[in-house]
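Sequence design from tokenized structure. All designs in this work follow the same two-part layout: the structure record, then the generated sequence. An example of the structure record is given first.
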């Protein structure tokens, strides 16, 4: 469980099961089989991930999802994401991006 807004808790497993149900139309259970085409990759990455502190890994994954979903939420979240990107990547307004894209085409 992860604490959510105002102390409410969020069950990540149930959230993921719900997302899979919406995406695939199928319920996910303990015995649900998932085809993984590159099992060796996943077994080896598990060793690497096991060396990381669980809190760091959780924060990294949550941050990635927040950055991915921020544009789909409120104007305030979009503005915060743009502010973060401007500070992290350097300021670049849309007109500069447009010019760079045109030059590369």
């Amino acid at each position: 469980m992860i604490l959510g807004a105002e102390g409410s808790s969020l069950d990540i497993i149930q959230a993921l099961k719900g997302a899979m149900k919406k995406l695939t139309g199928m319920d996910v259970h303990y015995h649900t089989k998932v085809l993984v085409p590159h099992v060796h990759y996943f077994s080896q990455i598990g060793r690497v991930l096991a060396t990381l502190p669980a809190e760091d890994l959780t924060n990294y994954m949550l941050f990635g999802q927040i950055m991915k979903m921020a544009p789909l939420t409120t104007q305030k979240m979009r503005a915060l994401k743009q502010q973060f990107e401007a500070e992290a990547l350097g300021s670049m307004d849309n007109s500069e991006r447009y010019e760079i894209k045109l030059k590369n085409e």
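The mean pLDDT is 76. We note this feature because it recurs in several other targets discussed in the main text.
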